[in-house]
Amino acid sequence: MAAGEHAVVEFAYDAVFYFDDLPNNQTHPQKQKDSKDVITTKPQWYRTAIAPVPFREEVFWNVMERWILEAPAIIPPVLKVEVIQDDVATGSGNESVTTTAAPESPVAQDRMRLLLDDQVPYRTIRRKLLPKRVAKDPIMEEQLYYCRSQQQCLGDDNNSDMKKTASSHAIFAPIIKQNIAADLDNELKTLVSTLPFYYPKIRGFRYGYQPDPEDAPEDKEDEHDCDQCEDMKNNQDQAPDANGRCEADVCVEPNQETGKQITQSGRSGWITLDLFLAGDEGRFTDKMQYAFRELFKKLFKWGINTTKGFTKSRVEHDVLVPKELYQKTYARLKEKHAQKWVQSWAEKTDAQKFVFEDIAIASWLVALWELERAKDSKVSDNQQEKKQTFMDLGCGNGLLTHILNVEGHKGTGIDIASRKIWDIYGDETQLQVKTIIPNETFPKGAPDGKYKAYQEYICSVIDTCGYVLQKENLRIPSTKNVALVGMFLKRKRGREDEEGYQSRVDQLVMRSGVFVPRISDKDKQMIQKTKLAAKMAKEAK
């Protein structure tokens, strides 16, 4: 890079967590606003995490909006979200409190006041979280509140420019439905027994945003937001550290070797995480702490990516198979096959990876074929029930072939060598050891990688054979997740066009060269053992 040019340094994630300071029956809580007792029966908000960020408040709300509507992206056990109610208005919201008390009771009203932290929500959302494992996890409802505190003058006159920084919060609270009187002593037990495993067993939590304008000193009386922000700000408003980080609004420093200017994004505010606790929750498990840490880090990353314009996946999913149908099929096949094959996996490979990956691929194929049969209205009902057949070339462990066979699709898996697990599947699974001699060699040279060259070649074969090419990126835990489909023939234009297709296919076959199949892993091991034995015999002489 030429001298004088600028380089932008990414804003570093630098969060501080306070899990050890949260109230429970063994430790003391940190000092909280309006708190008189160490342990109180009334829940209060406790600061759990804080981190500086380089983005503005509107970015924070943009991320919150996506999190609310796209819950499966951050909560994997959730299948989808149903928004029951969405009001952009003020109101008490007493109909949805996180308590077993009756909605209009004084206890419920007091709880709502504490939950909202004396703020008036400008938007309330009630949503339903539908689980993937319908048989195991309950459906739950959740109430969300968008709140923003007002700026307050701290000076003696109305013209004072000393203002408390306005903060914003997105509050999440589980809804517990019971038509009985309040029983606060058993409230936590009700939460534990009612909420699904993935949801924290607490009365509420909230994510917040605290702006950082230069001309607005923090309110020293607000120990939730301002003391911790001030401490972090004092630590960060220093010279760049060893990693070149500088937390001023804009940090520019010359590189002594290249002379280029290094510019880092400045801090615009803080994101926060607070938990609504009464002190009876006990210590947070390592798993729950990890979950909150990861979610907080995701909030930071999603905010950064939003400022860069990365709001959607770079690849297209659900082009051929609707997401809901795929997820429904995946849940069914996972319930049917996952536990059995993870526990009885006979290969040395990672069962967690390969079992779930093959279940995902099988789910997509089963759903795709189901749609194909449903669209074919020209055939009789009996013919529609006849399921598609397949050939799985390079089937490896054979699990994909096994699942498709079990689902009623006749087909065969072929590989150059058998696997130990093949013997476990049974006679219904058709697996063969065979070497397929292809009709074409791959072009030499692949600047974009062998996998990309392979995709392009398959695309050309599909096109040459006269099929409409369709492409989709599968939702599987693998980098090789591209599905290339040739399911429908292109519209023909008479005999001349048909002969043209046949001519191109013939040329494709004629261009085939000598194919040398790869050596199987078993043969490789035998060759290595033979070489090692010969070497040892030679050294012994």
TrEMBL record:
GO terms for molecular function: tRNA(Ser) (uridine(44)-2'-O-)-methyltransferase activity. Coiled coil: none annotated. It is an enzyme of class 2 (transferase). The keyword Zinc-finger does not apply. GO terms for cellular component: cytoplasm. InterPro entries: SAM-dependent_MTases_sf, tRNA_uracil_MeTrfase. Its main location: cytoplasm. One of its GO terms (biological process) is tRNA methylation. It catalyses: uridine(44) in tRNA(Ser) + S-adenosyl-L-methionine = 2'-O-methyluridine(44) in tRNA(Ser) + S-adenosyl-L-homocysteine + H(+). It is found in: Cytoplasm. SUPFAM superfamilies: S-adenosyl-L-methionine-dependent methyltransferases. Keywords: Cytoplasm, Methyltransferase, S-adenosyl-L-methionine, Transferase, tRNA processing. Its EC number is 2.1.1.211. Probable adenosyl-L-methionine (AdoMet)-dependent tRNA (uracil-O(2)-)-methyltransferase. Adenosyl-L-methionine (AdoMet)-dependent tRNA (uracil-O(2)-)-methyltransferase. Belongs to the TRM44 family. This is tRNA (uracil-O(2)-)-methyltransferase. It comes from Mortierella polycephala.
